[in-house]
Structure formats: C-alpha cells, structure tokens
Target: XRE family transcriptional regulator
Amino acid sequence: MSALFDQTLRHWGITGKELSNKSGVSENHISEFRRGKGDITTNVLWKLLQAMEQIAPGSGNHFFYLILGQKMEHPSVGERLEQLIEAADDEETERAMLAIARKWKGSRSVQALTV
Model:
C-alpha cells in the first residue's frame, strides 16, 4: 500500500511537505510510510487522504483505484474544474471566476474577428 500511496503522490505532484502542512502528520512519518519503512493507522491514512483531496482533487480516488488494481478513467476538463471549484475557498473561487471571464472574453473576441 505504501508504494501505491507514493505513486499517487508522485502522479499528482503532491509533496510530503504540502501533505504534512494540510494533514498535521509529520513529514518524517509520511516519508517513512512512502518508503515502506513504517506503518500508519487508519486515522492517519484518513487524514492524509483528506489532505490529498484538498491539494489535488481526485487524488484520493486515484489511490483507491490503484489499490483495487483498476485503471482510473481520467475526468474531463469540465469535471476536473468542478472538483477544483468544490474544493476551493472563497478567494480561490474568485480567482477562478476571473480567469474564466478572461478566457470567455478572449474567445468571444476571436469569434468576432472570424465572423
């Protein structure tokens, strides 16, 4: 399980430091588990999975798919955006909305030039 956990973190670009900051679990404990040198309780695993989801929505599902030996179908861009928005705080939501508005405005400008 520790190898699959490590694989998930690498796949999603989650660092031990980030995970430690979000979960409250020490970097050392996380590192030992990732290397298969230490065990964790179900409570600690739950904290880590919750933190992973905050950092990279979908990463927890990815981990579970690996455990089950199944290939995870990657969500569409729209589905990923929905997951990110659900996990975002108010400030992050505002930044996302501004980015969407800029993108929409830019695509409308291009459409106007081609018509």
Notes: Residues 27 and 98 are 35 Å apart (CA to CA). Residues 77-114 form one domain. The chain has two domains: 2-68, 77-114.
